Amino acid sequence: MTRFGYTLYCEGNDPRSLIEQAVMAEKAGFDFLIISDHYHPWLSEQQHAAFAWSVLGAVAQATERIELATMVTCPIIRYHPAIVAQMAATVGVISGGRFTLGLGAGERLNEHVVGMGWPAVRVRHMMLREAIDIIQALWSGQYVSHYGDFFTVEDARIFDLPDDPIEIFVAASGKVSAKLAAEKADGLCTSDPEKQIVSAYLQSGGNKGSVWSQVVLAWGKSKEKAAKELHSNFRFSAGGWKVQAELPNPVNFDAATKTITPEDMKADAGPDAQLHVKKAKHYLEAGVNNLAVAYPGKDHAGFMKFWQKELKPALLP
Q1: Known catalytic residue: 107?
Q2: Which of 38, 40, 112, 276 is catalytic?
């Protein structure tokens, strides 16, 4: 079954707006919410990057039905995995079991701030594998001691746990991380609608019903305005994941994208419902069945109406 979510985009919105959007999304019939977990915004003009876990706690109290997930949290540098295990368990309890933990190997943009360096991707995947083991061990409710290659845990126990186990999905950008997701987690998150990544995950024994992703839908009453909003919030992705993971600060993303203009992004923006339906279906055809939609504009009420009246009926059979 295909499920649709709404993105709480921390880099483009202040925390109070994120909570308001969460309530609106629940009323609009979305199945789940995802939230980005950043220390910095991608671009200088965004000027927001609230602490995702505080927002999640507030959203859990402000909503009743809608599920919550991180897309994604990096548990290897900025956070110790023992702390991630506790944060996730607490949100699981507050939300009444509505929380899923999305994990990934992170971006330098957010992780370098604690001064621990930025390892090569191969090392980050090894660290992520060990971090997942620690998180899952702590969710057993027992005391845990761990002396591994990258992390140490001494006599730690999480006392507040949700009634049901929290599921984990892992972000993958290639076959290696897709295999890691199949081996260590309950689901896969892919940033692009690439069938090869989904196939690698499934061939490694992954859960067919738990493939997650996000699609950016730059809706707006004016094509020009929608393209400008898309440019302001999402041009950072133009260089692909290898660039996104390595640049350290918003000013670097500003420099890397200085030749990209709103005019370059017009083809993906505007009021035409079929444009957005086609883009979303591209993800569904790749095997994604938990698809979050990210809206880069500020007319959140207008987008919710557009979703209910035009997009959702066209996407659901």
Answers
A1: yes
A2: 38
Q: Is 102 in a helix, a strand, or coil?
A: strand
Q: What does pTM read for this prediction?
A: 0.97
Q: Which two tokens stand for residue 157?
A: 């126990």
Please give the backbone phi and psi of residue 76, each rounded to the nearest 5 degrees, phi first: -120, -15
> Has 38 been annotated as catalytic?
yes
Set 11, 26, 67, 107: catalytic member: 107
- The angle formed by the CA atoms of residues 27, 28 and 31, to the nearest 5 degrees, is 90
What is d(CA 282, CA 265) in angstroms, rounded to the nearest whole number? Answer: 18
Domains, the chain, with CATH or none: 3-315 (3.20.20.30)
Which long-range contacts link 175-180 to residues 24+ away (Cβ below 8 Å)? 175/200, 176/125, 177/105, 177/125, 178/204, 178/206, 179/204, 180/125, 180/128, 180/129
Residue 155 has φ and ψ, to the nearest 5°, of 45, 55
Please give the pLDDT value at position 192: 87
How many CB atoms neighbour CB 116 within 10 A? 11
Q: Which residue type sits at 303?
A: F
Question: Are the beta carbons of 185 and 120 closer than 8 angstroms?
Answer: no
Give the orientation angle of helix 81-94 with respect to helix 121-138, to 10 degrees: 50
- Asked if residue 287 lies in contact with residue 211, where contact means CB atoms within 8 angstroms, the answer is yes
The span from the CA of 216 to the CA of 265, in Å, is: 12
> pLDDT tens digits, residue range 8-27?
999 999 999 999 999 999 99
Residue entry with tokens 């186990």? 165
Q: How do residues 156-203 score in pLDDT, each as one tens digit?
A: 999 999 999 999 999 998 999 999 999 999 999 998 898 999 999 999
Contact between 150 and 125 under an 8 Å Cβ cutoff? The reply is no
Between CA 119 and CA 60 the distance in angstroms is: 34
Please give the Cα distance from 65 to 81 (Å, whole number). 28
The crossing angle, in degrees rounded to 10, of helices 175-184 and 121-138 is 10
What type of residue is 291? L
- For the record, the structure tokens of 26 come out as 């629940």
